[in-house]
Amino acid sequence: MIPSAGTAWACAALVLSATAVTHAAERGSGSSFPIFATEVDDLKSVYATVRSRDLVHARVRTPGTVTSLKIDEGDAVRQGQVLALVVDPKIALKIEAIEARIVAASSRVETSRVELERATTLLQQRVSPQSRVDQARTAHDVAVNDLKAAQAERAVAETEIEEGEVLAPTSGRVLKVPVTEGSVVLPGESVATMAAGGYLLRLELPERYARFMKAGDAVLLGARGLGLSEAALKTGRITQVYPQLENGRVIADAEVAGLGDYFVGERVLAWISAGKRRAYVVPRAYVFRRFGLDFVHLEGESGRFTDAVVQTGRSVRGEDGREDVEILAGVTAGDRLVQP
């Protein structure tokens, strides 16, 4: 029976691996590193969701029709920026009626003033009694007060027009615009929903991890796009762990820098610590790759070393910033590694 090509390649790989493992050579000038167990974070991978810290609604202050909509989903807005204009046609008619009342009141004020001056002159000439002067002064005061009341009503109506401007209550990004131009809105109705106060990560984990989580714990954030790469791109901290479980899951929020360009609701791969465990951690420089396998130089007797196949795990960042890697199998405590 003729062996297949795949079987031949597998046999060749086994031969090369065996040759590499049994290879021995004189130790070079590289430094050695002792193998010992150390405590590392037992990281668990979870999918986190990008959320806004606050959801703020820009609401209508006066009823009317949306005549101008100046925003769209995804726009960045500033506090106090005009987002939409709401107009009530009845306000214009109301102002016209008030203007007519102001004109009439102004005429009455002028007439009462002339009448008061006439009555005062006749009183000085001892032709008219004091009662007529008092009556003319009262009529003048009433006309003046009517004019002031009409002017105040006009100011209120003009304020209603100004309140037709829907302003952004805070700076942020527009997430949702539930109205269009021509929509009829009522006071208190939302014109736009905005994400404000920055972004954070919402973590939801099984309740068995609840006792391990606390504010201040580190969170590692992976690449975007729900990739399975174990390379951590960003680091953050848990800011709040909610005391109530929901559907058997503990909920926590974490702050991670650089989430401003993420979509609200976007899911990303993250890792959190679920306690401590003991593991072998060595500098990345002591591990090299050959024939698709990971090897290390094990120091032997008489200054010689042998190549040993190892199974590597997750990368670990040392306290001094050095890149380390976890060794899952292939070495034991007490072994010494020689740097290639």
UniProtKB/TrEMBL annotation:
Keyword flag Coiled coil = yes
Transmembrane annotation, as ranges: none
Q: Which residues form the signal peptide?
A: 1-24
What domain of life is recorded for the organism?
A: Bacteria
Q: Which InterPro entries match?
A: MdtA-like_BSH (IPR058625), RND_pump_MFP (IPR006143)
Family label: Belongs to the membrane fusion protein (MFP) (TC 8.A.1) family.
> What is this protein identified as?
Membrane protein
